[in-house]
Design brief:
Blueprint: H1 2-7, E1 16-17, E2 20-21, E3 23-25, E4 28-30, E5 37-41, E6 48-53, H2 57-69, H3 71-75, H4 79-95, H5 97-108, H6 112-134, E7 139-142, E8 153-161, E9 164-168, H7 176-187, E10 191-195, H8 202-214, E11 221-223, H9 228-237, E12 243-247, H10 250-259, E13 265-268, E14 274-277, H11 283-295, E15 307-310, H12 312-327, H13 346-361, E16 365-368, E17 372-373, E18 376-377, E19 380-383, E20 400-402, H14 409-418, E21 421-422, E22 424-428, H15 432-441, E23 446-449, E24 462-463, E25 465-466, E26 469-470, E27 472-473, H16 475-481, E28 483-491, H17 494-501
Parallel strand pairs: 2-6, 9-10, 9-12, 10-11, 12-13, 14-15, 14-22, 19-20, 22-23
Antiparallel strand pairs: 1-2, 3-4, 5-6, 7-8, 8-28, 13-26, 16-19, 17-18, 21-25, 24-27
Helix pairs in contact: 2-9, 4-6, 4-8, 5-6, 6-7, 7-16, 11-12
The structure holds NADP nicotinamide-adenine-dinucleotide phosphate and glyceraldehyde-3-phosphate (G3H).
NADP nicotinamide-adenine-dinucleotide phosphate is lined by residues 168-173, 177, 195, 197-198, 227-229, 232-233, 236, 247-249, 252, 255-256, 268-271, 302, 395, 397, 423, 464, 469.
């Protein structure tokens, strides 16, 4: 079935032998000289989806060198040419969304519809990046704001690419969170090396085929596969890599930040997004947002709702509504679009179970769930969670939602801010003045008022504070992060000054 889906994509045979996928460098698909591959198993039924190459550090070095050598040819292209290529790539993504989405569903257990819409979302992101790139402007400033300088001194600033951008994405959005790095990097004139997540490595390989067909010259865009634990440190520290754009866990992100010296970093990491529910919230809308925010893709989203802090007057009613909606969630096969499907690995299930067990041992109330079959964990609601329990602070990346009942907005803000994470926060209320005031107190990148936490739409700025990240993503912000200003200062002669002062009759 997988092979049939892949064969729907023209020329995809060049990417693989049977289901053994190659890596992509200089416009060619290659097998690693290591002779080793990484098997990718479907987390739903443990069947092999395919294998990818376990590349060596020598191969990593070659790929990065190729990206460096091809910088000039790409930088020389006009903005218009690069934008046209991104648009062509977007059109191919739309054309091949179903088969690529199908493969992704198999390799990471994402519901089929969501997997397909991840591909079309990426197409839209490529189109919007092409548009945003064409809007880039520079600036010119006179020196006369400062004492001792006049209009004879002028700085002219425009942005230039950084060089080779290393793009590393997480398993939960293997296509979109790789594409959201590739598009701004290429639009800005950089060359690219992608290292996909091992679990979820196959779907991003299709960027090779897509970008080549769209017109990206060989060597400008390259993909290397291998385990992060084996080639990750070598990749990020490579002297020819000019920037690392990374999305993944806070643990890996912090490790990268420690070992990489004097290189721009864009890090989008974990979260523990809290929803503060005030007494006047519309509880139906709130419950709907909480359930969809907490449980889509089984809670495996950085922006999932990961804590609910309700006020006492509405806590019982809200929890009842959330429980009713949670009990109605579909559970099972991602191919049949069940909301709750498998977690990415049994190790991850063990971790989530550990959080549930700890909370139960410390006296929380189990409302539903706490059941497991294979890698599927039933959506679990925990009431009367206290700040002594691990689930109040740790990111489960699974379908478990704690309710920490609070007595005041101040207490909710305090618990919210005590987290090591600072991705997003939510406030549900009809009092917009109060919501605005609370929003200003929360130590997070984004506060959602009367809505679930989420990254999109993709032109919004997206960032985390504290352990949740470094730098800002979002189309125009990513382009800015992947470029630097080049400043040229004109020092005009006295004659220039005289011409300016000259009066015409
Ligand atoms: P992860 O384990 O940190 O892996 C992320 C990526 O880093 C993978 O491609 C991984 O490769 C690679 N990697 C591992 N060790 C590395 C090293 N030493 N150097 C360079 N790269 C290395 O994260 P994950 O489990 O895939 O994703 C889940 C986490 O990501 C959650 O914490 C979630 O909150 C976070 N996330 C954040 C955002 C956001 O935008 N804030 C979005 C999505 C996910 P291998 O797969 O080969 O190990
Ligand atoms: O997993 C982290 C992603 O950045 C979340 O994106 O809010 O669109 O699901 P999303």
């Amino acid at each position: 079935m997988i092979i049939e889906e892949i064969n729907k994509i023209p020329n995809s045979f060049i990417m693989k032998d049977d289901l053994d996928f190659k890596y992509y460098v200089s416009g060619t698909w290659k097998k690693s000289s290591s002779g080793k591959t990484i098997g990718i198993r479907n987390p739903y039924n443990n069947e092999i989806v395919g294998t990818v190459q376990a590349c060596t550090t020598e191969e990593v070095n070659q790929v990065i060198n190729v990206a460096k050598e091809n910088l000039e040819c790409w930088e020389e292209k006009t903005q218009r040419e690069r934008a046209d290529i991104l648009r062509k790539a977007a059109a191919l993504m739309r054309e091949w969304a179903n088969p690529i989405g199908y493969i992704m569903m198999k390799e990471i257990g994402k519901p089929l519809k969501s997997a397909i819409s991840e591909i079309t979302r990426t197409a839209e992101l490529f189109e919007a990046t092409a548009e945003a790139g064409l809007q880039q402007e520079g600036e010119a400033i006179y020196g006369d704001t400062f004492k001792g300088f006049g209009k004879n001194k002028m700085s002219m600033t425009y942005r230039v690419p950084l060089g080779v951008i290393l793009c590393i994405g997480p398993f939960n959005y293997p296509f979109n969170l790789t594409g959201s790095k590739i598009a701004p990097a290429l639009m800005a004139g950089n060359t690219v090396v992608v290292k996909p997540p091992s679990q979820g490595a196959i779907s991003p390989l299709f960027f090779g085929l897509i970008l080549e067909k769209a017109g990206v010259p060989p060597g400008v865009f390259n993909i290397i596969t291998g385990k992060g634990s084996e080639i990750g440190d070598y990749l990020v520290q490579h002297p020819m890599v000019n920037m690392v754009s990374f999305t993944g866990s806070s643990e890996t992100g912090k490790h990268i930040a420690k070992i990489v010296e004097m290189k721009p970093l864009l890090l989008e990491l974990g979260g523990k997004d809290a929803a503060i529910i005030l007494n006047d919230a519309n509880l139906e809308i709130t419950a709907e947002a909480i359930v969809s925010g907490a449980f889509s893709y089984s809670g495996q989203r950085c922006t999932a709702v990961k804590r609910v802090l309700p006020m006492p007057e509405i806590a019982d009613k809200l929890i009842e509504l959330v429980k009713k909606k949670t009990m109605n969630l579909s559970i099972g096969d991602p191919e049949k679009n069940a909301t709750i499907g498998p977690l990415i690995s049994s190790k991850q299930c063990d971790y989530v179970q550990g959080l549930i067990d700890d909370a139960l041992e410390k006296g929380c109330t189990l409302l539903c769930g706490n059941k497991r079959e294979g890698n599927i964990m039933w959506p679990t609601l925990l009431d009367n969670v206290t700040t002594e329990m691990r689930i109040a602070w740790e990111e489960p990346f699974g379908p478990v939602l704690p309710f920490i009942r609070v007595h005041s907005a101040e207490e909710a803000i305090k618990i919210s801010n005590k987290s090591e994470y600072g991705l997003q926060g939510m406030i549900f209320t009809q009092n917009i003045d109060l919501a605005f005031n609370i929003a200003q107190e929360l130590e997070v990148g984004t506060v959602q008022i009367n809505g679930k936490s989420e990254r999109g739409p993709d032109h919004f700025p997206f960032l985390g504070t504290k352990s949740s990240g470094l730098g800002t993503q979002g189309i125009k912000y990513s382009i800015e992060a992947m470029t630097r200003p080049r400043v040229i200062v004109m020092n005009l002669s006295e004659k220039g000054k005289l011409v300016k002062e000259c009066k015409y009759d």
